[in-house]
Design goal:
β2 and β3 form a beta hairpin. By secondary structure, this protein is of the alpha+beta class. α1 packs antiparallel against α2, α2 packs across α4 and α3 crosses α4. It is built from 6 helices and 4 strands, in the order βαββαααβαα. Helix content is 70%, strand content 13%.
């Protein structure tokens, strides 16, 4: 028997985990939600014989949780930390450009992110029974954050080039309108 305890205080993540665990395609699994001192815990018990399949399913579930549910807030955090001098409207445009960049090569970027997150979860859960979700994401997913950081940097460069282009066109219009007509 293999048991895993996933600890978090985020009610959205807890709801996501419980919904996905209800739909998981695996026999011999049961789970419960308990609140202890600091965290709300999702405890998953697997009584089957294929532990690697169990770990694979849970790692996939947690990887999708990070990419689907948390990625936007992680991107916002990177933008605020590294590019605090942009106003809120500009940061939102940069975030939008991030999503556009990821959509351009969706399968490659998604596969790359998923593989990194999945491998980290799988190797951790192979050796540990409990995982504090926020701590794991913040301290064990450095390669994933590097990918997000590269995407944000590219989005900022695109945003700045676009902004400078529009300023150049505006200055060019002012110059042309300031000139006296010549025949």
């Amino acid at each position: 028997m293999k048991s895993i305890c996933i600890k978090t205080n985020d009610s959205n993540l807890l709801r996501y985990l419980l919904n996905e665990l209800k739909d998981i395609d695996l026999d011999n699994i049961c789970f419960s939600e308990n609140k202890f001192k600091c965290y709300k815990n999702v405890i998953i018990h697997y009584t089957g014989s294929d532990t690697s399949l169990f770990l694979s399913k849970i790692s996939s579930l947690l990887s999708f949780l990070v990419i689907d549910e948390l990625e936007e807030s992680l991107l916002k955090r990177i933008i605020i930390q590294n590019y605090f001098y942009f106003d809120a409207n500009e940061r939102n445009k940069i975030l939008s450009i991030c999503f556009d960049l990821m959509a351009e090569d969706l399968s490659y970027i998604f596969d790359k992110k998923f593989k990194i997150v999945y491998n980290n979860f799988y190797s951790f859960l192979s050796n540990n029974k409990a995982i504090v979700l926020n701590g794991f994401i913040n301290f064990r997913l450095k390669d994933y954050f590097n990918i997000l950081d590269d995407i944000v940097n590219e989005a900022v460069n695109t945003f700045i080039i676009e902004k400078e282009y529009l300023e150049f066109i505006s200055l060019l219009r002012l110059y042309i309108n300031a000139q006296a007509p010549r025949m």
